[in-house]
Structure to design on (118 residues):
């Protein structure tokens, strides 16, 4: 997983004097990243200037997206746990029976193998 650290800097008035876009007074700078194709290649992205309103919008929208991702992960985990509990229950019932249903045990084992591969 690639984690790019970001630094913020509020540009001083001296740097903004005579600038055509003085509203863009927040500078986003990203740490250098390595390219996966070449071991020696390092990419240093250019800093980006944005307005304070854009920075707030970026923060809010990224928070919403991360919330959606987290909810999706929680739903997937809940579904996985539910499937696992069904397989466990079916396997336990089959094992407790005097004459176990071989096809049921095979389905339970297949389901457990498939869940490990996910």
């Amino acid at each position: 997983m690639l984690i790019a650290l970001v630094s913020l800097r509020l540009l001083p008035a001296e740097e903004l004097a005579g600038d055509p876009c003085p509203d863009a007074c927040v500078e986003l700078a990203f740490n250098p990243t390595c390219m996966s194709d070449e071991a020696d290649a390092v990419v240093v992205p250019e800093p980006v200037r944005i307005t304070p309103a854009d920075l707030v919008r970026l923060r809010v929208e990224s928070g919403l997206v991360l919330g959606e991702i987290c909810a999706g992960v929680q739903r997937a985990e809940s579904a996985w746990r539910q499937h696992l509990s069904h397989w466990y229950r079916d396997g336990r019932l089959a094992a407790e029976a005097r004459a176990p249903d071989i096809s049921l045990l095979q389905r339970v084992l297949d389901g457990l193998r498939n869940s490990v591969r996910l």
